[in-house]
Fold this protein.
Amino acid sequence: MEKFQTLHTTGRPLPLENIDTDQIIPARFLKATTREGFGENLFCDWRYNADGSPKADFVLNDPRYAGQVLVAGKNFGCGSSREHAAWALYDAGFRTVISSYFADIFRGNALNTGLLHLQVSDEVLARLLAAIEENPQLELVVDLPSQTLAVPAWGETFSFAIDGYKKECLINGYDDIDFLVNQKSAIEAYEKQRAWTW
Amino acid sequence: MSRTLFDKIWDAHTVRSLEGLDVVYIDRHLIHEVTSPQAFDELAARNLPLFRPSQILATADHNVPTLHQDQPIREPLSRLQVEKLTENCQKYGIELYGLGHERQGIVHVIGPELGLTQPGLTMVCGDSHTSTHGAFGAVAFGIGTSQVAQVMASQCLLLSRPKRMRISVEGELRPGVTAKDLILYIIAQLGTGGATGHFVEYAGSAVRSLSMEGRMTICNMSIEMGARGGLIAPDATTFAYVEGRPFAPKGEAWNDAVSYWQTLYSDDDATFETEYTYQAADITPMITYGTNPGMGIPLTGHVPSEVPASEAESFDKSLKYMGFERGESLLGKQIDYVFIGSCTNSRIEDLRAVAAYVAGKQKADHVAAFIVPGSKQVEQQAIAEGIDKIFAAAGFELREPGCSACLAMNEDKIPAGAYCVATSNRNFEGRQGPGSRTLLASPLVAAITAVQGRIVDITQYLN
């Protein structure tokens, strides 16, 4: 997993609520057996017409917007547990998703992919969406070590929450496998003392 | 100290606790062809052994065809995924109930029917509907592929303890109202993110009176309101279902198991962060009108006319996709497809309910109705009971087991623009194929809709 420190970037607005992982990456694209290449089908049915041509009004096809932060409506990533959704966002170049609420499984999948989910209040989200639509060049600074999102044009900085262990993992590019494998003796001891074995 | 059912199981599986995180031991790990290949690659890339292969069970379900399963899979990518699963299971010594095996089926249908799913266990699968197994009083939840690899490597996950929610439904369900209506009602009340961060215990007399199949339907859809999982305290109904199944404890071990399982309930004064209570009498047959499972209404109700301003854009986009308007009734809307299947409603009880209604009737000419059993065993049972003949006579096609048109990874897709009443769990845009329009409902509502060819108030049509 790549290390995550600080991002100086711009945002791409997607002001819809309850964006489910079937929209992020439709099930018909889950047939790959590797982690790579999902980015081209990110938001496929919103992004392309049936003939494969891009839909001009979708944010990812709008040349005004670039940047590594997706700013999306609340309850982002609900539905299916497919980690492919986080892989697709990452593969398409996103490193952070900002929303006012995230689905549980998506949070975990994002962290295991090196993608930061950054939760802000409904009010800040609404301000960000409006400001980015007005000025697609609005600079955003995501700083993981200090757990802050800065909007220099506003002169404002917002702090966000993240579990301390997960933060260290993301900063250093570690994942849970190394940690868990190192717990082997404790796990084996646990298995031996279990009261029931069926 | 008083504890909830969830906490009793979680505590019993905590290997050690760190600051805010627990190393949680996983008893059973179910895998399938879609979310496992990258996890196996992860192990291989790190040169890690598979820690406890005997605690993993594999099946092929998500992208398998539901016709001609005796022949090679025609779609090359699906075939490759299924072959990859077979290779990996052979390499690592994992039991596989693949295509053609008498125990093959949807992962959340075969676990319970084989007796692998038991009270007090922790169970995971790379599939969000793993919450189904909570019906037995197990802590069961869906995980991502990185976590699949973690469980393969260590039989554990590093997790923060979710909050607890209890949802009680009291009283008797009305005629024509099923477990599916009950859970669609609850999700409509809470919304699609209403239980995020929580593990839900379902309680109350209406829940207690449900069969195991009904309880599985309820727990299955916990994720549709964002819950980490859902569970129901085990009782005599649970024990009677598990007893005698292939993986159930036998003899002395059975008695020990039941003694332990009888301790699995929430203590009287246990506290839940959030509690809701509903009355069964308030629940009527439900249907969804929008593009998330929280957008449900009584069959006789109306699409909401007013929504908060912040939700208006998403709401109208959803209605536009579905071809519905604010404030309208769905009664009389013509339907093109009826799909009866998925890990939510493809068990023998569901098929019996459909058969009981359609016996001696005919589906409407313009409706394509197909039934996909949850497992080989359900299929065989249906044939043994003669249900297959009832379906055939009524014009319903009985397919072979798999996830099928619930997520349309195989050939079973609903065409763009067509309306499908489905017994599955998700009505997301494109879920049943690009442009498909899904209305979620119970097997009984689906059966009556197929016969009438349009949305009706089913209480006027009950046998």
